[in-house]
């Protein structure tokens, strides 16, 4: 029986470790005599020979269910082209051979699906017996083929709750003080996370404007809108995607750094919008940038998201039995009321490096709100609470003991 | 029997409504035939004749226990000097006379204690029969006399949890990506909220640097420290008070606007620190500004904080029976292990407009950490969870029906 290699990749989520839990339990069930190796910091651990042996871990794997972040470390690392740089893959496969590894599981988003697909392709080219399966994970919810992505439901819940809470705060203050609150959320090209702000409105008017990367930003229209909100409700709450673009398609915020995939490092949109409001409307503002807080907030993860994150891991193990190399378990929505889903699988060629943005019918005509269709899509994903265990006033988030 | 007037003032908290609940229940017990009037938007409601009659509210006051923000609206409004502008107070007291109000309860922080003290002093000067009692509330934890302030325990819990979560996130990413994470928290002159970041370290090294307004900021020492953290742990997590000052006592961030008390509007420290790190150490960073999110996060309020917020309200009603005008219920710590506390009372002359900063023995010699004494003080305040009720994936935070 062949052993397995698993690694986590890309930006982590509050439930990525739940997928590891699902996979490990599923794989052990199907391959009771096999071992699981885990790359420290994603594929980099494999390249640098930092590989954990899960057999040596003493603590219970149940700890994975409760802890945010990537228990084994993640990475942003682009693999070379399998056709032109086969020597790179020969080295990788030598490492697999040494450990009798026949199953490669890579847990990540678009870029990670690209990594997994390249490993799959290289194995074909080099005639190496390997089953490479990607496990979906991204708070951005922008993976193609799957209905939604594990990690997104929890960040959606966090943003909806935070927006509702901040809205009740500013509502209290607006008479004599702050009248505009701007919350900057993640989302480079797709506005899924910002869209979740609309869920705060199920019981009252808490969020007034949602700024999406899909809708070119019009300063005048925005300022008029905010001014109307303040006239009507006394305040305006704005949820803004970091990837907001102007009509020329350029980032509205200033970007500076780029990562190894060439993506710009974002941030700084909220203060820019706040200044715009202050300069033109002379209104007192507050702004917040949730950044890592939103994607690591395991304390308020969606129960639905936790369940789906476990499920994609479990099904990935099933797919190993069926030797479905080059595929990824995906979530398929069967119905909205009541919400029903099952796990299907998708071809990595249709997933790697692709991005799914908000469909037009989810965006209101004014461009600042989410339609009922969008709400019907989003709402099931934040259902249920999955509280971690607490110790001394804090979530315990106990870490596994890991050994090379 | 005289009636009561209650209002909320200053920046709101996630548990200020719990104090209203405690007061209303206590007052009704002691004065079953009296009515309670509530100012909309603090003292401004009184001035502008926007006064709720609590008798007309149909929904259960239990809703107050669950909802963040100020249920009745708050304000930032400075009252005139009682000696030189007694005509202002004559008008106020006429409104009280019209409604047979003999008890004035004002729920707020330093500035609100000033408001309550002025009302108390004006009543003496004008020989008006009024019992004016302040009820403490501030996330800043900077009120004098009281051991701690209702509202602080919950924001401390939020910051400690968020810091721990973000730390697990960056720990996953630091190998190939982000190595420094900066979280900007509230705190103009006192570093209590930033200090709570130290609580994240009870089980591992999650927070490396705490930047306090009490410690003049030294760029070189900070950069060397961050560089050492990254060398040692691979990453550095920094919790920074918005009110961080340089060695000349000037705000390190740029301030622009001022509120009606002359306080500068802060914000923008985190991106400035991030730029400093990036420019000098060439390290990839992320930063977050929690702003309103931290002080409205009822979803993760401290149970201890909720209990104390209710208690100060209840005891304020007792103090009305004893006619303790010009006083405020305060929290007195009786012991740390186990944590014991009781409610005592303090003279508003010793509280109004005063600010309690972190004592020297709570700050480590390096200036970047909190000592064991500080931890012993902080830790009891975040104990216990007090989850709100959820509906459809979100805290319900139902609002009272309010009628003039």
TrEMBL record, chains A, B:
EC code(s) of this entry: 2.7.1.90
GO molecular function, one term: metal ion binding
UniProt keywords, alphabetically: Cytoplasm, Glycolysis, Kinase, Magnesium, Metal-binding, Transferase
Catalytic residues (positions): 140 (proton acceptor)
Highest taxon listed in the record's lineage: Bacteria
Domain Phosphofructokinase: from-to ranges: 7-297
Record-annotated site: Important for catalytic activity and substrate specificity: 111
Subcellular location: Cytoplasm
Transmembrane segments: none
Activity regulation, per record: Non-allosteric.
Nucleotide-binding recorded as keyword: no
This protein's pathway: Carbohydrate degradation; glycolysis; D-glyceraldehyde 3-phosphate and glycerone phosphate from D-glucose: step 3/4
GO cellular component terms attached to this protein's record: cytoplasm
Chief localization: cytoplasm
Entry-linked Pfam families: PFK
Binding site for Mg(2+): 110
Catalysed reaction equations from the record: beta-D-fructose 6-phosphate + diphosphate = beta-D-fructose 1,6-bisphosphate + phosphate + H(+)
Residues binding diphosphate: 11
Cofactor: Mg(2+)
GO biological process: fructose 6-phosphate metabolic process
Family statement: Belongs to the phosphofructokinase type A (PFKA) family. PPi-dependent PFK group II subfamily. Clade 'B2' sub-subfamily.
Assembly notes: Homodimer.
Entry function: Catalyzes the phosphorylation of D-fructose 6-phosphate, the first committing step of glycolysis. Uses inorganic phosphate (PPi) as phosphoryl donor instead of ATP like common ATP-dependent phosphofructokinases (ATP-PFKs), which renders the reaction reversible, and can thus function both in glycolysis and gluconeogenesis. Consistently, PPi-PFK can replace the enzymes of both the forward (ATP-PFK) and reverse (fructose-bisphosphatase (FBPase)) reactions.
Protein name: Pyrophosphate--fructose 6-phosphate 1-phosphotransferase
Gene: pfp
């Amino acid at each position: 029986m062949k052993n397995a290699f698993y690694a986590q990749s890309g930006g982590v989520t509050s439930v990525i470790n739940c997928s590891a839990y699902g996979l490990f339990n599923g794989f052990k069930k199907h391959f009771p005599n096999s071992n699981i190796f885990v790359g420290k910091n994603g594929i980099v651990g494999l390249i640098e020979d930092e590989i954990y042996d899960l057999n040596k871990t003493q603590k219970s794997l149940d700890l994975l269910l409760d802890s945010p972040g990537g228990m084994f470390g993640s990475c942003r690392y682009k693999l070379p082209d399998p056709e032109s740089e086969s020597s790179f893959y020969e080295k990788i496969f030598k490492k697999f051979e040494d450990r009798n590894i026949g199953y490669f599981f890579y847990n990540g988003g678009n870029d990670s699906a690209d990594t997994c697909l390249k490993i799959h392709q290289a194995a074909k080219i080099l005639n190496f017996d390997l089953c490479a399966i990607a496990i979906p994970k991204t708070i951005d919810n922008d993976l193609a083929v799957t209905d939604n992505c594990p990690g997104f439901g929890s960040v959606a819940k966090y943003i909806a709750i935070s927006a509702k809470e901040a809205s009740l705060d500013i509502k209290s203050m607006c008479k004599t003080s702050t009248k505009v609150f701007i919350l900057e959320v993640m989302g480079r090209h797709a506005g899924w996370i910002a869209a979740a702000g609309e869920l705060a409105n199920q019981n009252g008017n808490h969020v007034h404007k949602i700024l999406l990367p899909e809708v070119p930003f019009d300063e005048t229209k925005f300022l008029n809108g905010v001014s109307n909100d303040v006239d009507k409700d006394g305040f305006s709450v704005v949820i803004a995607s970091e990837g907001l673009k102007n009509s020329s398609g350029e980032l509205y915020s200033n970007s500076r750094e780029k990562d190894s995939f060439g993506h710009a490092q974002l941030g700084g949109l909220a203060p820019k919008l706040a200044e715009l409001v202050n300069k033109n409307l002379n209104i007192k503002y507050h702004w917040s940038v949730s950044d890592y807080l939103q994607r690591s907030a395991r304390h308020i993860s969606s129960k639905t998201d936790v369940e789906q994150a476990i499920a994609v891991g479990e099904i990935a193990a099933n797919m190993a039995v069926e030797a479905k190399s080059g595929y990824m378990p995906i979530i398929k929505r069967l119905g909205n009321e009541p919400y029903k889903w099952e796990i299907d699988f998708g071809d990595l060629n249709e997933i790697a490096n692709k991005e799914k943005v908000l469909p037009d019918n989810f965006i209101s005509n004014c461009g600042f709100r989410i339609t009922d269709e969008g709400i019907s899509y989003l709402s099931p994903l934040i259902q249920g609470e999955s509280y971690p265990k607490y110790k001394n006033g804090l979530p315990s988030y106990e870490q596994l003991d890991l050994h090379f």
